[in-house]
From TrEMBL:
<feature type="binding site">
    <location>
        <position position="293"/>
    </location>
    <ligand>
        <name>K(+)</name>
    </ligand>
</feature>
<feature type="binding site">
    <location>
        <begin position="12"/>
        <end position="14"/>
    </location>
    <ligand>
        <name>substrate</name>
    </ligand>
</feature>
<comment type="function">
    <text>Catalyzes the phosphorylation of ribose at O-5 in a reaction requiring ATP and magnesium. The resulting D-ribose-5-phosphate can then be used either for sythesis of nucleotides, histidine, and tryptophan, or as a component of the pentose phosphate pathway.</text>
</comment>
<keyword id="KW-0119">Carbohydrate metabolism</keyword>
<feature type="binding site">
    <location>
        <position position="141"/>
    </location>
    <ligand>
        <name>substrate</name>
    </ligand>
</feature>
<dbReference type="InterPro" id="IPR011877">
    <property type="entry name" value="Ribokinase"/>
</dbReference>
<keyword id="KW-0067">ATP-binding</keyword>
<protein>
    <recommendedName>
        <fullName>Ribokinase</fullName>
        <ecNumber>2.7.1.15</ecNumber>
    </recommendedName>
</protein>
<feature type="binding site">
    <location>
        <position position="289"/>
    </location>
    <ligand>
        <name>K(+)</name>
    </ligand>
</feature>
<feature type="binding site">
    <location>
        <position position="287"/>
    </location>
    <ligand>
        <name>K(+)</name>
    </ligand>
</feature>
<dbReference type="GO" id="GO:0005524">
    <property type="term" value="F:ATP binding"/>
</dbReference>
<feature type="binding site">
    <location>
        <position position="254"/>
    </location>
    <ligand>
        <name>substrate</name>
    </ligand>
</feature>
<dbReference type="GO" id="GO:0005829">
    <property type="term" value="C:cytosol"/>
</dbReference>
<keyword id="KW-0808">Transferase</keyword>
<feature type="binding site">
    <location>
        <position position="284"/>
    </location>
    <ligand>
        <name>K(+)</name>
    </ligand>
</feature>
<dbReference type="InterPro" id="IPR029056">
    <property type="entry name" value="Ribokinase-like"/>
</dbReference>
<dbReference type="Pfam" id="PF00294">
    <property type="entry name" value="PfkB"/>
</dbReference>
Length: 307
């Protein structure tokens, strides 16, 4: 029987603008399209985990506004169980997303709102939920003290812990030592280690550096090149799947982390779980949006069955 996945993170309403390029300071340009939808790394990962078949729970804060209603509706539709407090004196988070029309690459500004006030005390109020999990996941969009306290509670209870170090920020070795796995992308791995990840060998060296600092394993996502699974006993590159043209890369890392967490909660091996996550991410980039792009379990299983 699959275990519970608990995710501490942020919900934001994504405001996505597609254009040929970003405007310069003081310049106004015409965009090609606009879309409003649910996002935030923690929320995206919870949606990805639930749609991939996991028993996903999210711990966060919202305002009491239209974007909060969007969050609750998104989780209800995906099958995510919220452990949420709402603050009428703040606002639900929002994000500006620029999407390059030609490549699908993106640049993002996040304003986390109420979730930016998450404290260790908020996390401690959900200690029983964390302690009963099979897998705990967090990122760095909410305040660091809350993330660290959640990792401490989960680790003390024997829960497998995953840190998705995004957006990139300095981390103490003691924090990495609370993580069974870290899941950075290339730029985040470089920010944490000082090693520019341009080749597979670079990725392995960065992974070694993260493990030397205390992480149990490093699972580095490499975009179109797939993912590197690296621990003290093995280093395995898993290629991305050929699904179709890339439409948008927003949320691809979250699709990976959420589906990866589901596979781990089901008892899969680290490499097998990463392959499952790769399949989810490969499907997600063929669709616009973040939460909206997360594939279902049936879609992931069908892709893996074809490979």
């Amino acid at each position: 029987m699959a275990g519970r996945i608990v995710i501490l993170g942020v919900f934001v309403a994504d405001t996505a603008y597609r254009a040929a390029r970003q405007p310069r300071m003081g310049e106004t340009i015409l965009g090609r399209s606009f879309a409003l939808g649910p996002g935030g790394k923690g929320s995206n990962q919870a949606v990805a985990a639930a749609r991939a078949g996991g028993d996903a729970h999210i711990v966060t804060k919202l305002g009491r506004d239209t974007f909060a209603e969007m969050a609750l509706a998104t989780w209800r539709e995906a099958g995510v169980t919220p452990a949420v407090t709402q603050d009428a004196g703040s606002y639900t988070g929002a994000a500006f997303i620029f999407v390059d029309e030609a490549s699908g690459d993106n640049a993002i500004i996040v304003a986390p709102g109420a979730a930016g006030t998450l404290t260790p005390a908020d996390v401690e109020a959900q200690a029983a939920l964390l302690e009963g999990a099979a897998v705990f996941v967090t990122q760095l969009e909410q305040p660091m003290p809350a993330a660290i306290r959640a990792l401490e509670i989960a680790r003390a209870a024997g829960v497998r812990t995953i840190l998705n170090p995004a957006p990139a920020a300095p981390l103490e070795d003691a924090t990495l030592a609370l993580c069974d796995m870290v899941t950075p992308n290339e730029s985040e791995a470089e920010a944490l280690t000082g090693i520019a990840v341009e080749t597979l060998e670079d990725a392995a060296r960065a992974a070694d550096a993260l493990i030397a600092r205390g992480a149990g394993a490093a699972v580095i996502t490499l975009g179109a090149r797939g993912v590197l699974v690296h621990d003290r006993s093995r280093s395995v590159q898993l290629p991305a799947f050929e699904v179709g043209p890339v439409v948008e890369t927003t949320g691809a890392g979250d699709a990976f982390t959420g589906a990866f967490s589901t596979a781990l909660a089901e008892g899969r091996d680290l490499v097998e779980a990463a392959r499952f996550g790769c399949a989810a991410a490969s499907i997600s980039v063929t669709r616009p949006g973040a939460a909206a792009s997360m594939p279902t379990r049936a879609e992931i299983d069908a892709l893996l069955g074809q490979s």
